[in-house]
Amino acid sequence: MAIRGGPKAVTALGPQHGGYGPSEIGEEEIQAVTEVLRSKKLFRYGKAEGESTVSNFESLFAQKLGVKNVLAVNSGTSALICGLIGLGVSTGDEVLVPAYTYIATAAAVLAIGAFPVIVESDDSLTIDPEDLEKKITPRTKAVIPVHMRGTPCDMARIVEIASRRGIVVLEDCAQANGGEFRGKPLGSIGDAGIFSLQQFKIITAGEGGAVVTNKKEVFERAAIYHDSAYAFWMEGQVGDADAVQDWRKICFCGENYRQSEVHGAIAFEQLKKRDRILDRTRAIKRKLWAACETIPGVKMERVNDREGDCGISLVFFMEDSKKAGEISDALRAEGVSCGTMFSKQIPDRHIFYHWDYIMEKRTPHRNGFPWASTERPCEVSYTKEMCPKTQGWLSRAVVLPINQNFSAEFVDQVDHAIRKVAQAWG
Length: 426
Ligand SMILES: *Cc1c(COP(=O)(O)O)cnc(C)c1O
Known about the structure:
Layout: H1 20-24, H2 27-39, H3 53-65, E1 69-73, H4 76-86, E2 94-98, H5 103-111, E3 115-119, H6 129-134, E4 140-143, H7 155-165, E5 168-172, E6 180-181, E7 184-185, E8 192-196, E9 209-213, H8 216-225, H9 230-237, H10 241-250, H11 261-292, E10 299-300, E11 313-317, H12 321-334, E12 339-340, H13 356-359, H14 388-395, E13 397-401, H15 408-425
Parallel strand pairs: 2-3, 2-4, 4-5, 5-8
Antiparallel strand pairs: 1-9, 6-7, 8-9, 10-11, 11-13, 12-13
Helix pairs in contact: 2-11, 3-11, 4-5, 4-8, 9-10, 11-15, 12-15
The structure holds pyridoxal-5'-phosphate (PLP).
Pyridoxal-5'-phosphate binds next to helix 4 and helix 5.
């Protein structure tokens, strides 16, 4: 092994820049953005049918997901906020979120004055359905299953529990654009779904997001909240006097989470490239998975649907955190880019343990809202010890990020490196 002074298994040059959407930016995006700029109309409303890049993105996304409604917004976080409002979640409600997710999932719940209740993640590193059910109280209104690192949650069990217990499901697909569960696109299974188009996601517009749902009322409420003047724009958009009347009657106050035409133009072009990226990441993951399975004592991540997995990362577990660290070091010495996932010292904002402002119930509001609301104060407590199972899985995990720019030669050498370390390990 290279770690003991032997030759390095990986000599081929790895990808020189990151993967996913950003590395696919090309003439298509440049052309599309240039057209928007030349038109001097950077705002989505007030355009003729088919002329708005944002609404073209919405239509294509709806078609790909097989959902009736898509609302483009300016970030994944604002998509979560609009999705929660769309679903009727309100101040003082409890919303179940996994212990392993980007902090924005929990922050969005707080932004609307509701309380995140943190649920264990299991050996799929997605929300544990058993713990989810245990954490339901009479105040629970919704659950946000997060398809972490492109791998689907167990949507069959989650939907079954949610419908039996009378709570709604908002899928957080920020990291899983293009994933599926049992043949159904992620985001189309729960009552609503959200996506992010931020730089680090599978496809990107720099910033951006979307709320998706088959439910008309959820869509309308989300759309109203995403724009404080929604009724007025609709008035310009829809010629029909009755429809105008309707919007004025049902509108309530909102914020501004609109998407610009520049972002819409990039998002539309990126979406067309998505499935090509995923074909490649999926093929690489299948190959490297087989290599990782040869490691003595390994336990592979449990992927709830291997066909529907986006293939953007591969995770396996060792018996303890020491062994995870050792094998990760051995693989890195061979030239494999991989790493362990949990450290008490290095704050990873994807792990509940490091969500300081939630642990400490900090707020921007003078009266302590929402934590100290006099009407419905928070009954949830947060400690670093609250999700030992999640911490256990993460501390034993080794992750190999995958992207579409791994060359065939590089993948072969990584495959060989894993098998070589596995053999020496025994
Ligand atoms: C990135 C991300 C978000 C937030 O998206 P932004 O576009 O950065 O606001 C929410 N949830 C998860 C799981 C994410 O990875």
